Structure formats: structure tokens, C-alpha cells
Amino acid sequence: METRKLKIRDLTMRDGQQSLFATRMSQRTIDRLLPLYENAGFYIMEVWGGAIPDSVMRYLDESPWNRLRKASEAMKGKSLLSALSRGRNLFGYVPYPNSVLEGFYKEAIKNGLNVMRIFDALNDIDNIKDSIKMINELGGIADGAVCYTVDPKDEQPAATGFGAKLKSLFGSKPAAPEKIFTDEYFVEKAKTMESLGAKIITLKDMAGLVNPLRAASIISRLKKEVKVDVDFHTHCTPGYGLASSVMALLHGVDILDTNIWWFGGGSAAPALELIYVFANRMGIEVDVNMEAVGKIRNELLNARKELAEFDLVKKMPIDFDPLTDTLPEHVSAEFDKAIACAKANDEDGLLAACHAIEEYFGFPKPNELVKNAEVPGGMYSNMVAQLKALQASDLLDDAMRLIPKVRRDAGLVPLVTPTSQIVGSQAVSLALDRKKGNPDYSNASNQFISLIKGEYGHTPVAIDPEFRAQITGSPEERPYDVSSYKKPENPTLDDMGGVKLASNDEEYLLLELLPSVANGFLRRRRAEEYQVKTAEVAKQKAAEEATKVPQEPITGELLSAPMGGRIIQINVKPGQAVKAGDVLLVYEAMKMENDVTAEKDEVVKRIFVKEDEVVGTDAPLIEFAD
């Protein structure tokens, strides 16, 4: 009988670093790793998409296209290169028309991309079908991802009024709500994607919430009901990841998503080396060159040390080479116990054994806060990094506890980019509202308003019309209208010799996708070309300008920043009369855009900020006339 082979999708350079190090791995580090990957034999390497296009411009001042090109050149076609696309949202945070999707897909495949994993944050097939068709027509491989999520916990609000009287009389509990996210729900989504042309089906468990028995039931159903390869993607944050991956192995999964040792575990996917040990003992061949993986592992240790500032865990596992290191007897026994428990459907025993293995090697313990709040690891690490940058880390626990409430209010959306950022940002705003004694949702981001309107698509559960009216001003659902999309301008930069901001098609695509971030990124490129200066000089000059503060004492009424962030747009000038409700400025916080409006009729006296300036919470924005 032929030995069963397991294909591996390596996530280290995209999802791994995004989950553990807030996507801060530089191109310099990537360049050291790529030659070592060439002969590793991974079926697929995820190197692009997701937060990469945004983050490499935003935080590293690097070109997303350059990153993809360099990976393609280094791999020479020996492993398939994949990216993560958010369907109608692509790699951004708002819905885009087909012209933008096709432009990006075409350019990505031209630059060496093979597999596009396509998902929608709402599991709305209407937001996925066009991308699947385009990828296939352009010669790529469409990977349809179903986002795993869970039904809300059975938390009933305290009864009041007539309901309290009924409960006291009869002692009855409200009927349990209908389950939405059943095995059938996920399988039907997968079958629809396959019928639309998906060549791989992924169960995408971005929050790590698939417990082992659920992994067994869903993977088994998928293997029976779809003909294409089935991939399992999970994270270890709440403590299920390794055990559920063992269950996926047992029930026939074709492809497993893993990270190499130093980038595995915690809020990331399981470590390949642990999967390798399990697979060997289960008689499954891991179709990877583990000697080459060892060389990558050695270099990744250096990479992790370089990323120490952004390390979510701050504690590294002990070193381990499954090809040469002998496991202590008690640890070896835990591997065997885990496999036996998996075969017996003993979930508690399987989890206990896997947790003992992870504890021995020094991987993080299950994060109960993340587990209870039902959030993905990447969302958690980004919230930690963003709140730290905003000097508001004390709000993290409160914001995490509010995430389930915001999610329910928003139609029970799965938490994956962009909905994870939208819900996470709104939870932070809600925490700020409560800290300041303001009503809930006093500050709703523009993206949250769009989500509640219906512009991101159909939510799994219908949004309460009263809540929609509270947030958007109307109880009616208003879908996104692609005909209303306006292509961004590509201005001529007179102060830089009259050149265009975007110098070619790929740069203009960045401007279409992420106009706010790309604008600054491309301006820096043009500034370098025109002034023959480094980006560091330009940043230093901008930083010096940002530190200037007005000397005249503040005597008029002051408008302060409700939350730290970056100023995107200023709509008023000194001396201008404004009316209550006028939008004074727009700022970005937690990657969301927020309007700051006038509370009453006023006259602007001074403006303390400039566009593109970063401000902290309660920083002075505008002074009004006495």
C-alpha cells in the first residue's frame, strides 16, 4: 500500500510573521531566507497578500511588488507561491470594483504568484465568485477559503419588566437560539466555491477556534463532498491548533498550513516540526525536505531576535531538530497518547497531551482571554501593537471583552480581515466611550458604519434595523454600489519636477487599493528620485515638523483627539465659521477612518495639526474663538 503524503503550505513569511510579529519582517531578512527555501520542497509558500501590501508600505517603507518578485525569482518555480485575497476587499479594507480586482490579480500573476487563496470576511459567496473566475482565467490557481467561526455563547441578558415577571412565575428560560454555523453551513459554502471553479478548498480557522472534534467532523465531511484538495488552516492562540491539526491529519486532510519552529505556536499556526513527528508516527509522509527546513530554522532564529521589539510572546521555545534530537521518554509518550486519544475521539485527552508537548518545548500556553473573546491571533497581535503605538495599552483587556458584543451587534460576522480590524477598532472605541462615561457607539468609524449599512455584503445574521438606524441614520440595508467607485487621482507633483505620483501601473494599483498609505509611500519614492536623498532624511524632517507646538496660550474652547491616530484630511481653516455637524477633519486610528465633527456653531481660531501628522489620545486639534 502506497504511503499517504501530506502536502505543506508554509506560512512563515506571511501569516506567521503577521501573527507573531505584526508583519514587521523586512525585505533584507526575507532576502536571507529565500535561498534556503529553494530546495525545501514545500507544496505552497504563502509570501504575499493579507496585511503585506499595507504593512510593508506603512511600517517598512518597502514595495509590496518587489517582495513578490524577489520570492518568485528565488524559488525558480520549485514551490507554488500563494497570497491571501479578501475577495471583494482584495488586500484592503473596503469593497473594490472588478477593475481593481482584475488589475491586481493580473499584475500579481505576472510577477510570479501561483495560488490565490480567496475568502470573504462575511462568507458571502457574492463577494468571492468574481475573484475565483478571474484567477482561473488569468492562469492562476483559485483556492476557495471558508472562514470558520462559532455561534455566540448562550448568554442571555437579565430579564426586566414583564419578562422578569414571567420568569419569576414560570421559571422558564428563553428558547436556545438556532445554530447558524453548523457543519452543513461550512460544507455548503465549500461546495459552492468548488462549483464556481475553486481548485483547493481551505477551512480557514483564523481565530484558532476549531476544537479537535469539530475539525474531525468538518474535514471528514469536506473530504467526502468535494473532489479537490482540502487544506486546513488554524492558529494555536486558544490552545486547539496542534490538537485539531492532528485530527485533520487523521481524517485525511490533503494540505496542512504550518510555520517553521521559531515562527510557530502561540497566535500562529502549529510548528511544522511537531506535525512532522506526529505524521511519522501515524505512517504519513510529510512531503518536505526536512534537512533544508533545518537550515531555514537556523536563520529564522536570527530573524526572530531581530524582531524582538515586536515579539508578541517575548519567550522562545527550546531548540529542536526532529531529524537529530531524541525526545525524552515522557515527551515521546505524550505524542503516542495524543494519537491514541485522537483515534478514540477523546478530545480532553488529546488536548492534554498536546498542551504537555507544547509546554515541554516552551510554546505559549492557551490564551484564555483570546479564547473567550473569540478573536484571531493576527487581530490580537495587531491590537497589541497598535494600542502600544497609541500609548493606550491599558485598554486592551476592556477592548477584548467588548469584541463579542460588537460582533453580535454587527450581524455575527466572522472575525477576519477586514471585519476583525473593523470590530477590533470599534471595540477599542467602545472601551474609550465607557471610560469617558459616554454612551456606547458615540464614536463609530466610517468602516463600521459601512459594515452596518450593508456595504461589505450580507452578514450571516440580519442586523437589527433599530441598531442600523442608530449607527447609520437609516434602518434600511444599503449594499455597496460598484458604479459609485471613483478612481483616485494621480496628481502631478510640481514641487518634485512635475512628475506623476504613481510612475507606472503597479504603483497606481497601490494607489487604488490603499490610497492613504500608498500616497505617502509613493511621495517618498518620488522625493528620493528628485532630491537624491534617503527616505530617512525625509522622515526626520517630517518628524521635526511634527514636534513643533504653538507658543501662544490656549484661551478658547479646545477640541481634542478622541483617540490617537494619524490626520488624513483637514476641512477647515483659521477664521472659518462652522456649523454643528460639519466635518472638521478626518483621522485614521487602528487602520479605520473617523470623522471629527463640530458639536455646535463655532469659529475656528487655530489648527494645531497637519495632514499626515500622528497624534495621541486627547492631543489638541482645533481651538475655537473665545
**Would you tell me which CATH topology of the largest domain applies?**
TIM Barrel
Mean pLDDT over all positions: 89
The number of domains: 4
Tally of helical runs: 23
Helix content: 40-55%
Largest sheet, described in full?
8 strands, parallel, barrel
Q: Could you give the count of β-strands?
A: 19
User: Roughly what fraction of the amino acids lie in strands?
Assistant: 5-15%
- Named at the architecture level, the CATH assignment of the largest domain is Alpha-Beta Barrel
CATH level 4 superfamily of the largest domain: Aldolase class I
Class by alpha and beta content: alpha/beta
Could you explain the architecture of this structure?
By secondary structure, this protein is an alpha/beta fold. It folds into four domains: 4-154 and 180-370, Aldolase class I (TIM Barrel, Alpha-Beta Barrel); 371-474, Conserved carboxylase domain (Cyclin A, domain 1, Orthogonal Bundle); 492-544, no CATH class; 558-624, RNA polymerase II/Efflux pump adaptor protein, barrel-sandwich hybrid domain (OB fold (Dihydrolipoamide Acetyltransferase, E2P), Beta Barrel). 43% of the residues lie in helices and 14% in strands. It has 23 helices and 19 strands. The strands form four sheets. Strands 1-2-3-4-5-6-7-8 form an eight-stranded parallel beta barrel, surrounded by seven helices. A four-stranded antiparallel sheet has the order 12-19-17-14, with no helix packed on it.
